[in-house]
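Lab manual, section 2.4: Encoding a predicted structure.

Procedure: take the sequence of the chain (168 residues), apply the prediction step described in section 2.3, and record the output as structure tokens. A sample record is shown.
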Amino acid sequence: MWLRKVNNADIEDVMQIFSQARMAQRNAGFRQWEDGYPSIEVLKADIDNNIGYVVEDEDTLVGYIAITTFDEEYERFQQLWADKGMYAVFHRIAISDAYRGKGLSKIIFDLAEELSRQLGVESIRIDTGIENRPMQHILSKRNYTYLGTCDFVWGARFVYEKPLQRPQ
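Recorded output:
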């Protein structure tokens, strides 16, 4: 499996993955993504801003992640972050139903963290819904540090950070 930039030809497949992820959230008993989010406009903005990535297995799109090295909303809360160096933010992580429960979140995070290292990033920042226990579990297993709750424009979220170790 590998990570590559999303493009316009991927829109239909990625929108299907987003839809499946929304349903998986509801089936798990929470609603972090309201109906229609992420929208096609959000995905097109990710493409235009060069921050969207898909995970491919052979020729099948199986996951999505947006990776940015600047987030205006995160900048408003400088007091939260332990690491003041260059950071990346992971947003809109989604897995297709066919790969749910098969360890794809580990692969997505491994690939995204490695790409971030290559970009010179010193830490990863991420937020997740207060009821999103699956993501909280993933972040805990991956040694992300819980920093508290923050009221972003998109709502109250738990925030996490992880310093990236440099290759020796």
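Check your result against the sample. Residues 11-27 form the longest helix (17 residues).
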